[in-house]
């Protein structure tokens, strides 16, 4: 994809700190085969512990709209899905910041649904989100170093476009941009098909007046934390991606001498490391976030139908897809190193 010449991102001096290097547990003392099981154990234990502490402030809120999960396979399935999410982060090479941002993006739709249409208090939603994020961030913080793109002092040459990543105005603009995309997608859904769809597929939904009275500026402002999480998970790794061996193969590709398999590979996946990073991470948000929203809504909300949960999940999958596409467009400017 040829870069556009008409605009250029500012290359300011880094002035907003990234996350400092974590005090990683000595890896030599922890066998590699035990590190991921330890992450799962720490995450589930921290989640249970912190939810027990917050129950004093959230008592009755979530239980009033939740189905009872009494069967062993229901509880086991939720734990297995939690482990799958952690595995996606661990084996995908994410650090604690990535996991916290991804957890926010994948858990927000369910909590937003509860507070908007079931009257769950915002304090309950905020407390639950913090528990979800901290219970994934802390194990990764302890067992895996912070990636160079999130490190305040990365090794020299380990990150591309450092001045763009840390530029104050770029941080603000990309956060507002992602928040605006989510706000427009949700606002458009509220104003068209979603209210009737929810009433049809959610037996006992309490109140849909918020969908009819939503104001776009307020929605965008409320999604600023979502924009920040999207920037950290999508835009920052995209900008910081360094060339790899695949880039060398792409540059050396010769259509006259390439085999059929090489030609197909080049046409399907012959993009720069920066583009491949953004595509994979956007797909992760869409797939993991979409399935998580469907599962949480359908399994835990009393009266929810599968089609209803899928419709709600599609709103957020669309927002994540558009955000990824727009971030790709934003990064395709002169001065950005691929």
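Q: What amino acid sequence fits the structure above?
A:
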């Amino acid at each position: 994809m040829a870069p556009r010449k008409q605009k250029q991102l500012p290359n300011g001096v880094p002035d907003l700190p990234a996350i400092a290097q974590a005090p990683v547990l000595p890896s030599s003392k922890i066998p590699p085969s035990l590190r991921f099981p330890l992450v799962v154990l720490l995450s589930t234990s921290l989640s249970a512990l912190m939810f027990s502490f917050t129950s004093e402030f959230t008592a009755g809120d979530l239980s009033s709209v939740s189905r009872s999960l009494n069967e062993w396979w229901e509880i086991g399935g939720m734990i297995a899905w939690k482990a799958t999410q952690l595995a996606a982060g661990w084996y995908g090479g994410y650090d604690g910041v990535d996991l916290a941002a991804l957890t926010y993006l994948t858990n927000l739709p369910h909590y937003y649904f509860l507070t908007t249409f079931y009257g769950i208090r915002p304090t309950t939603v905020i407390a639950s989100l913090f528990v979800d994020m901290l219970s994934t961030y802390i194990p990764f913080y302890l067992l895996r170093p912070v990636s160079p793109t999130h490190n305040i002092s990365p090794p020299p040459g380990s990150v591309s476009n450092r001045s763009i990543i840390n530029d104050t105005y770029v941080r603000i603009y990309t956060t507002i941009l992602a928040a605006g995309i989510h706000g427009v997608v949700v606002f458009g859904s509220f104003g068209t098909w979603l209210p009737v769809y929810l009433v049809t597929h959610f037996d006992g939904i309490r109140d849909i007046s918020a969908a009819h009275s939503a104001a776009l500026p307020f929605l965008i402002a409320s999604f600023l934390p979502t924009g920040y999480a999207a920037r950290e998970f999508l835009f920052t790794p995209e900008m910081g991606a360094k060339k790899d061996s695949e880039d060398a193969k792409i540059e050396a590709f010769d259509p006259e001498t390439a085999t059929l398999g090489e030609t197909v590979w080049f046409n399907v996946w012959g993009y720069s490391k920066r583009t491949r990073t953004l595509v994979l991470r956007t797909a992760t948000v869409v797939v993991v976030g979409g399935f998580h929203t469907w599962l949480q809504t359908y399994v835990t909300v009393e009266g929810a139908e599968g089609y209803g949960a899928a419709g709600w999940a599609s709103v957020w999958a669309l927002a994540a897809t558009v955000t990824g596409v727009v971030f790709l467009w934003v990064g395709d400017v002169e001065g950005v190193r691929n």
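Q: And what stands out in the fold?
A: Residues 1-25 have pLDDT under 50 and may be disordered.
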